[in-house]
Amino acid sequence: MCKDAIVFNNKPKGVTLDAWIPYYICACGRSKEGVFCDGSHEGTNCLPKKVIVEKTKQYHICMCKTSNSFPFCDGTHSMYADEEVGKSVKP
Ligand code: FES
User: Fold this and answer.
1) Pocket of ligand 1, candidates 63, 72, 90: which has the most ligand atoms within 8 Å of its Cβ, to mutate?
2) Gap between the Cα atoms of 40 and 6, Å rounded
3) Residue 6: which residues within 8 A CB-CB, separation 6 or more?
4) Please, which of 8, 27, 62, 81 could form a disulfide with 34 given CB 3.0 to 4.6 Å?
């Protein structure tokens, strides 16, 4: 987890990823759509997470940016209330 990240949302987003294509998942929570890196991490100590999946299917991408299985949701988002969306992640 990146300490400079902000909570983009307190629930995951279903995203179809194609097999064997490298994706760079936003880890800072500042990108426009919250899923893929768009360079918005500049000036933070966050870097996007590169992921390559073996199967084309829908994945639950972590939008709270604190999953222990990042970039995939592991349920950690349940610690964030709606009011915490857009704020700093918890250490
Ligand atoms: S959105 Fe579920 S753990 Fe981050």
Assistant:
1) 63
2) 12
3) 28, 29, 30, 65, 86, 87, 88, 89
4) 8
- Dist. CA 10–CA 50, nearest whole Å: 22
Give tens-digit pLDDT for 37-62. 999 999 999 999 999 999 999 999 99
Average pLDDT, the chain: 97
Domain boundaries along the sequence of the chain: 1-82
- Distance, in Å, from the CA atom of 67 to the CA atom of 16, rounded to the nearest integer, reads 19
* Residue type (1 letter), 25: I
Please name the residue whose Cα sits nearest to atom 2 of ligand 1.
Answer: 73
Read off the pTM: 0.95
